[in-house]
Amino acid sequence: MIEFTHVFKRYPGGFDALRDINLRIEAGEMAFITGHSGAGKSTLLRLITAIERPTRGEAAVNGRNLTKLPRRRIPYFRRDIGVVFQDYKLLFDRTVYDNVALPLIVTGADDKEIPKRVRAALEMVGLLDKERMLPVTLSGGEQQRVGIARAVVNKPPLLLADEPTGNLDSKLADEILDLFLDFNNHGVTVLIATHDLHLIDRARRRVIELNHGELARDTGAKA
Amino acid sequence: MIRNYFLRHAQVFFYTLGQLSRTPVATFLTVAVIGITLALPAGLYVAIENVQRVASGWEDNGQISLFLKQDLSEPAIEKLSDKIRKLPAVSWVDYVSREAALAEFKKLSGFGEALGALERNPLPPVLVVHPSTKHSRPEALQALLNDLRRYNEVELAQLDLEWVQRLYAMLDVARQGVLILTAGLAVAVLLIIGNTIRLAVLNRRDEIEIIKLIGGTNAFIRRPFLYAGTIQGLLGGILAWLLVGIGLLLLSGPVHRLASLYGSLFSLENLGFLATLALIGTGGLLGWLGSRLAVGRHLRAIEPR
After folding, report:
1. Strand-strand pairing, A189-193 and A158-162
2. Which residue of B lies nearest to A79 if distances are taken between CA atoms?
3. Pairing mode, strands A64-65 and A56-61
4. pLDDT digits (tens, 9 = 90+) for B243-289
5. Which residue of A72, A102, A111 is in closest CB contact with B214?
6. Which distant-in-sequence residues (6+ apart) come within 8 Å of A30 by Cβ?
7. Integer Cα distance of A98 and B199 in angstroms
8. CA-to-CA distance for A116 and A96, rounded, in angstroms?
9. pTM recorded for the entire structure
10. Average pLDDT over every residue of A5-29
11. Dihedral sign of CA atoms A122, A124, A129, A134 in order
């Protein structure tokens, strides 16, 4: 699903965010990326979502070579990746329903399909009764679950999360983790960047640790 | 598939209308500026067309007035008139006697009383020569004029067409001026729309970022902005049309009175159907182009962080 070989990312000014990363994550795996702030977790996710490109090395996601992916293909490439953000990135002028429906509208899904799939996604995160509400009226945990519903509504094979529990207390964080574990049990590849050790301990999945842009530890696929 | 495509465009269209109506003041200001900007050249165009219409009434009777010598006797004038009537270039000749000329002048000039005080009639007898239609081209008229000047009885021969020709030349200049003005104002409309859309893009920066992250194409992101620009441009065109109409309505009374003083039934004519379509279409086109330029430039700058 994700394959990095000798990937370097250098930002203008000479800062090396990632150095010689070799990484292989199979379809159906679930892994945590951890490390101190500035270790390169976010950069790794930005490369996987084609927001940025590697300076050197080869990176492939979903069978597509990211170094050679033409700009105009990037939107279509991203449709196979669901992304969950620390700050949820919801649209506050639209209802929960409209937020979750956005990826379907963007990809031009069939009109009759949209309500079914939006409600299925909302049911998975337990917010079916709040579809008419505006995001501001929801709690942080609920907002994050809206974000997750939006990330999975397209049924992407790969789900990325950048500090998904960073703004939540531990009880809510556990609920969010359970959702990710559930998706993974249904065959979705899940990759979570976090420095929440409690979350990592509880999940008992593969851990990839970055340190100053280098791969410091990889517990491997069978942890 | 195609049905879906149109459905999606219709959805974006109504979504955009909703967005515009949620900020009525900003939308109205943009539409007003576009409307006034377009009304200016459109109004001038209408004015020129109307002047042209007045002038085309005069163009056909490009007549030559022969002012004869004061002391000519009636039979002599009769003889001259017959001679001229037989020229191949001439269709017919009208004779305005000194008395008739004075009577007409008294009636039209308003100096009736004062003229009565004159001891003798100062006006010369006039022959009005109407050229045949085959000879109404400017060069032919000029040749005829030169021929008529050679008669001894003629004091002064005047081609009444000259000022019509000058008017035409002036209209050409004015038309060219309107064209230049239109080009300049079209650029102004582009800038107005471009700036409006630029602000709209910046206002919805977060939304654009998110849509880019979940796989929205640039065409998808552009669409509502293009609709917003086009709708505001079209509304501006319609407003310009209304403004021109109101202007004409306000002028129609005074113009009618002016025309009736000249014994004319002339009345102002509004933009024709095609010209109206062109005006509104230009508004829409400029709106689309302005938003396309602005969105294209700013979309590239907004990338997910």
Report:
1. parallel
2. B215
3. antiparallel
4. 999 999 999 888 888 888 877 777 788 888 999 999 999 999 999 99
5. A102
6. A180, A181, A184, A189, A190, A191, A192, A203, A205, A206
7. 24
8. 15
9. 0.74
10. 91
11. negative
Name the band, by pLDDT with cuts 50, 70 and 90, for residue B301.
confident
Of A83, A102, A111, the CB nearest to B7: A111
Which residue shows structure tokens 């910046």? B202
Amino acid at B304: P
Can you state the percent helix, strand and coil of chain A, rounding each to 5? 35, 25, 35
Q: Cα–Cα distance between B162 and A27 in angstroms, integer?
A: 90
Of residues A103, A108, A111, nearest to B214 (C-beta)? A103
Asked if the Cβ–Cβ distance from B214 to A83 is below 8 Å, we say yes
Q: Name chain B contacts of A91, Cβ cutoff 8 Å.
A: 206-207, 210
Residue A223: band (very low, low, confident or very high) from pLDDT cuts 50, 70, 90: very low
Contacts of A158 (CB under 8 A, 6+ apart): A1, A2, A61, A62, A80, A81, A82, A188, A189, A191
Task: Give the C-alpha separation, B217 to B207, whole Å.
Answer: 13
Residues contacting residue B40 through CB under 8 Å, at least 6 positions apart: B181, B185
pLDDT at site B56: 66
Bridge partners for A145 per DSSP = none
